[in-house]
Amino acid sequence: MKQDPVKPTRWLESVNCAIEGILWAARTQKHLRWHLVVAAAVLAAALYFRVPAIELMLLASAITLVVFAELMNTAVEIVVDMVCPGPDPRARRAKDVAAGAVLLASIGAAALGYFVFSRYLVPRVGQRLEPYQHIPGETAVIAVLAVTILVVLFKARLGRGTPLHGGMPSGHAAVAFSIATSVALAQVSLVIIILAMVLATMVSHSRLLMGIHSVGEVLAGAGLGIVLTLIIHLLL
């Protein structure tokens, strides 16, 4: 009995196989689904703001590059798992490098998106934040101290962790997002606000990577830092 060839022999069959591969990846890979959701939102925003055709083409190219990198990352992971099912440092390196390609493409796409949309979004956001943009630095210090005290009280009440290690909520996440929130309310540009939030997220993520906190503890700390800092700024 003659078996069907693994490789398609007709062009239309090749296209069908490619489409099936994309659909399978979209069904099974949550990161790819998130990329597709963000891509749809970016294209919708581009149409809403009526960006020029050249910028729309650049956005489409960046989106294509990110999706392509994610598909290649998925393919590399499948091949590595098939060739090396057990733990192997080389297999991990291959997966890390493939994931790094996705990260690099995503950073480039995010930077391009900022350059395209900043002239539409920054003036509007600046007008909305203008009543809150004249805040003294002392208020930010008071907010950080209040957040720290509340974190210590929570940990003392729950009997878990220390002010700097473990427990509910995460003190690092709370302080980091308290500072980022004060920066967001200060008289700075939108890109600095975004960078402050990214830095706070990286600090919080490091607590997860080190196994010191759970996701719930980090989210609780971030929420505490943001909410309490907002309340203090509004009161003062």
Folded structure, characterized:
- The model has no long low-confidence stretch (mean pLDDT 81).
- The protein folds into two domains: 14-129, Helix Hairpins (Orthogonal Bundle), CATH 1.10.287.3610; 133-235.
- Helix 3 packs antiparallel against helix 4.
- Helix content is 80%, strand content 0%.
- The chain is mainly α.
- It has helices at 11-28, 30-49, 53-83, 89-129, 137-158, 171-185, 190-209, 215-235.
- The protein is flat, with a radius of gyration of 23 Å.
What distance separates the N and C termini?
A: 83 Å
Secondary-structure arrangement, i.e. CATH architecture of the largest domain = Orthogonal Bundle
Which fold does the CATH topology of the largest domain refer to?
A: Helix Hairpins
Largest sheet: none
**Helix content range:** over 70%
Uncertain regions spanning at least 5 consecutive residues: none
| SSE arrangement, N to C | HHHHHHHH
